[in-house]
From TrEMBL:
Organism: Parabacteroides johnsonii
Ranges where the HTH luxR-type domain occurs: 128-181
UniProt xrefs under InterPro entries: RNA_pol_sigma-70-like, RNA_pol_sigma-70_dom, RNA_pol_sigma70_bacteroid, RNA_pol_sigma70_r2, RNA_pol_sigma70_r4_t2, RNA_pol_sigma_r2, RNA_pol_sigma_r3/r4-like, Tscrpt_reg_LuxR_C
Keyword vocabulary terms for this entry: Sigma factor, Transcription, Transcription regulation
Protein name: RNA polymerase sigma-70 factor
A Pfam match: Sigma70_r2
Similarity field: Belongs to the sigma-70 factor family. ECF subfamily.
A GO molecular-function annotation: sigma factor activity
Transmembrane segments: none
Domain of life: Bacteria
GO annotation terms (biological process): DNA-templated transcription initiation
Amino acid sequence: MEEESIISLFGKVVKGDEAAFRLLFETYSRRLFHVAYYYLNSRELAEEAILDVFTVIWQKRETLSHVKEPERYLYISVKNQALHYLRRGYVQEKDPFSLYEIELIPDSDTPEKSLMDEEYQALVQQAIDSLPPKCREVFRLVLSDKLKNREIADILGISEKTVNIHIAKAYERIAEFVNRRYKEGGIK
């Protein structure tokens, strides 16, 4: 969603537009879920954190007219809610759930090519899963959520330079991982 349209949508929410609120929730809940899950490692708690944030936004909507960057506000609110859960000790056992699955669109029409595409996609997913947690999260926020480096730095509490380093490191490690597996015969 473009920055101008999120500002317009958020403005409608502030004025009490329920349809705009639903659209805001539908547009951002999945992206925000990734941030909450990063901190909480629990689907249930991450979903709860998202619902809490949106509930507060709706309840206090009239007081939010000062928000100039709604997208940033949403991400930071979710991060803060997740950290609040952690401080309160609402931590559960880690879910065996991967937020980092990617979907490559195959351009094949043969079963053999389709199988190779699936194997390659699985290999790239393994490479992403092998990244250190902070590096993996930065990589996902850049690729999946299309956030700017400054926004990622704000959300994760790191510098923009560190974000750039994580991105470069992610690409380098993924390429090394895939190349190593090809040489070992990981993909036929």
